[in-house]
Design brief:
With about 475 residues, the protein is α+β, with helices and mostly antiparallel strands. It is built from 19 helices and 14 strands. The structure holds heme C (HEC) (2 copies).
Amino acid sequence: MPGCKTASSGPLSQVASAEDAAQIARGYDTLVNANYVGCGVPLEVMKRAVQATTIIPPAIAGTFFPLAAEKVFKPSIIPGRNQDNAGIVPSFNVFVTSRGVKAVNFSCLSCHGEAIDGRYIIGLGNRSRDFTQDVRAFTNLLPAMVQTDKERQELAVFQKSMNAIAPYMQTKTVGVNPAINLTYALFAFRSPDDLKWQDSQIMDPPNREFPPVRVPAWWLLRDKKVMFYSAEFSKHHNRIMTLAAGLCMDDGESIKALDAPFRDVEAYIRALPSPKFPLPTNPDLVHAGQAVYGRACAGCHGAAKPDGTIEYVKTIIPISDIGTDRWLMVQQTGAVHQRFRAWGEKAFLKMYHEGMSVDLHQGYIAPPLAGVWATAPYFHNGSVPSLEAVLNSKIRPKYWRKLGVVEGTDYDTQHAAVKFSQESHGQAQTLPLLKRYVYDTTLDGYGNQGHTYGDQLSDQDRQAVMEFVKTL
Ligand code: HEC
Ligand code: HEC
């Protein structure tokens, strides 16, 4: 099955039937080749822009040219890419727009793909993307690269949407994600009646300050079934995804046309297996750790069966118990969410004659721990850089900085951690250009408190339970 076997994710889990297998293959093809954004930077314009920026050293390019710094045009490291996409990194898809222009725009994998030690893992949440800068610093340079009227027209569509949402997608730290706010910002410009883009906002936009999130791993959905840290979506997620992705889909019809292809994408995501821990583990320690897990963790993260696999049951932990940063929970159960949910309800009913089915919870879901060795930094806001610190709140760094991001050596697989240095100062005391590299847990939404369930463990038990969860 082309495209469904990647170097990193291993074979797909036992697929029930040939029909399912075909659907999953179609879903993967859509994901890595299709147009689900609606517009883009004309490919030739992008090539000229990248050409113009390759002479700039990466550290500076990262600041001023966040797109170009990725070295966009490279032979594809994922399988199943079509001819247009064979020469571009997974973060982008190349496609022909409704205006007949070959264009490039972000793919789902720009947030839902990441490498560990050079091994690219589809579905692993991106932990290094820089959303701290105003993207207009880059996009405003693009008109200078235009050569034809068609290019100019396509770029104008892209810029109109980007200019509209740019103020609502700036984070304070590299590696955390603005996707929820970005989705709200898009809703604010579209009529829920026909999804037509309006030149001004039809309702209050989201706040410019918003709770940051770490991108969750896609393979969790197989067990979890419900979407998001706040577990609010339990039905099919294809529709909410197409609404969120269609940056500049012309109208409701083009979004509706994605309904079926995105059911296939959903099938692909739901079948994605977790990546196995690639290093040897100590069998005695794993065995001891399974017992500790049974006592201290199983009640929330799922019971361990005798063969060491987990029987996961969805468990939502009230905020008063889990105690991790509250802001996301507050937002997702409060006025901001309500405003955009009302919009979504209306749009869903108009488009599909079916409601959205949203459940509000005053807490966070205890996620399955499958493949958790790969998903540092931890918690919904990515505030804790290592597995050990998740299980010992006393050693969590108040200020920390990721190491090895530019070199691609930022992950410490053995310790299930990102490489980091403890910093003595928060963002307020840091030089402007370096601020964004500091994870400052004193900022609103960036707190690293809570989940103190591992604090009482002896060092030995903690090491053992860590060894066990690495095998999941
Ligand atoms: C700008 C970054 C970004 C892009 C692009 C993006 N996502 Fe996401 N995605 C996120 C974040 C962040 C979350 C977590 C939001 C939350 O939990 O509240 C998420 C959550 C999800 C989830 C739920 C996962 C779970 O376990 O709850 C699915 C499924 C998903 N995205 C699919 C997609 C698809 C399909 C696309 C492409 C059409 C896409 N995403 C594009 C950032 C992104
Ligand atoms: C009372 C319920 C509860 C118990 C007990 C519990 N956890 Fe958790 N755990 C959670 C919740 C809820 C989260 C998500 C918190 C958030 O994102 O804000 C979480 C998050 C985690 C994470 C981070 C996952 C990620 O990808 O961000 C790890 C790792 C983890 N727990 C491991 C453990 C281990 C190991 C134990 C046993 C020593 C344990 N937990 C005990 C509820 C619990």
